[in-house]
Amino acid sequence: MTSVMAHRLPKVNFNIYNATKESGTVYLTMTVNGGRIRFAPGISVNPSYWDKKRKRLDGRANLDGNHARGINAILDKWEDLALRIYTDNTRITAEDLKERLVEERDGKIGLPKEVINTLDGFARFYVEEQKATASNPRNFDPLATTATYLERYAAHTNKSIYWREIDKSFARKFRAFLERKEFDLSHNQVANIFYRLRHIMKAAGPDVGAKGFHENKAYLLPEFKLSEEAAYRHYLNEDELAQFLACDLSDQPHLEKARDLFVLNAYTGLRRSDAKRVTRDHYYVSDKGNEQIKIYTGKSSKYVHIPLMPEARAILEKYDWKLPLTADQTYNENIKVAAKLAGLDERMTHTHTRAGKTVTESFPKYERIRSHDARRSFATNFYELGFPAALLMQITGHAREDTFFKYICTTPERAADLFAERLEAVRKFQKERATKKLLEQSTPAFVGSVGNN
Asked: What CDD domains would the database entry show (predicted)?
């Protein structure tokens, strides 16, 4: 105790950084052996209730849901820990003391330094950590792709990506790297990699619940937020669906089954994952006597009622309401082959950015057809028939209108044609109504003149 008292204890302060009107991050600050420490314990508070003199929350915080006593007790524990680490080794450097605090906060004692100090090192660690606890590890495959490209960039530059070096210049260089011809990435693929890069940086940053490995919020800069181009989306109109359904595929049952499942989804609007579960137990008759499919959808977590149209009913009855199951990849490949045999070969074009260059691609329609195009076909066909979005969303299960409209594949040319058709119908109706009104007005006078004679 005497040796400890011979050293003057450093002063521990708590200050607010990254403050907005309603939230700010609490940082522990202290100077140790000439080095300055700034460490985020993972606590955010309302700056309005921060007592700058006491370096703690004041009692008014209780009115806003921030319980001052509890938060202040946590801050006291961090202060005690920092001083205890110092008294155990009064010659400790500021960097080492902060590292001990970080290890205590994250429970990750012994992590490799490249995980703590670099983006590329942390990215791979974070992906594996998430996959290890996920119910479906494949959900993190896109994140793993981002980690791979960060590793490739680090290898390309022959150095790791340290947190302090991540700025707008890094964003530009990394984007240029991703747009190299050898990767052949579309603009939207690059934008998605940046989206997940921001996710990774935030997970390692100073916010509440994050790792606190860095304090760099460069990922909020515009250079890290790439807007997406209009993605290529297509659908089959009702004539094409009829053509697809009419194609005789009986000699190739695997293609026939894939085609039938696609058309079923195009007349129900169900996601493939939900359509695979449909059985006779989902058959439902409404109070008005209308046949429906009533099913609890996985993604939207709610029941939807779907009108059972003749095309869908015929397919369900064909399989006795026991739909054949196929792997997703096999299903998509079979749809393409079946669509080709059905003659769905209209030439399509799509202009977009790939490898940093604007390109226009031309291809037959069957080449790009995929399972989700069935759901787009449902949304687009019935929207073009004039059904309001709010009504269709009750059937598709979409909660947000902006998400639903991503399923509408109406082209500008088609929209203009639909407008012309509707306008012609409205004018025809107006003309007929005016003619009828004119006849009604003239009839009494005509009858009266006949009676006088």
From this structure: INTN1_C_like
The reply to whether 451 falls in a domain is: no
Element containing residue 371 per DSSP (H, E): none
- Report pLDDT digits (tens) over 335-371: 999 999 999 999 988 888 898 898 898 999 999 999 9
- Tokens linked to 429: 């109706």
Residue whose pair of structure tokens reads 């909020």 in the numeric block? 220
Would you state the structure tokens that stand for residue 87, as one six-digit string?
């008294």
Angle in degrees, 0-180, between the axes of helices 119-133 and 141-157, rounded to the nearest 10: 160
Please report how the helices 94-106 and 68-88 are oriented relative to each other, as an axis angle in degrees rounded to 10. Answer: 130
Given 106, 128, 163, the domain boundary residue is 106
The answer to whether 356 and 183 have CB atoms below 8 angstroms apart is no
3 state SS of 53:
coil
Q: Looking at 57, 73, 106, which one is the last position of a domain?
A: 106
Residues 242 and 365 in one domain: yes
Task: Report the CATH number at residue 406.
Answer: 1.10.443.10
Structure tokens given for 163: 């947190």
Low-confidence ranges of the chain (pLDDT < 70): 1-7, 60-68, 106-111, 133-135, 208-209, 443-453
Query: Is 125 found in the same domain as 102?
Result: no
Q: Do the Cβ atoms of 365 and 339 come closer than 8 Å? A: yes
Instruction: Judge if 154 and 294 occupy the same domain.
Output: no
Tell me how many domains the chain contains.
3
- Report the b/e string of 130-164 with b at 16+ CB within 10 A: ebeeeeeeeebebbbebbebbbebbeeeeebbbbe
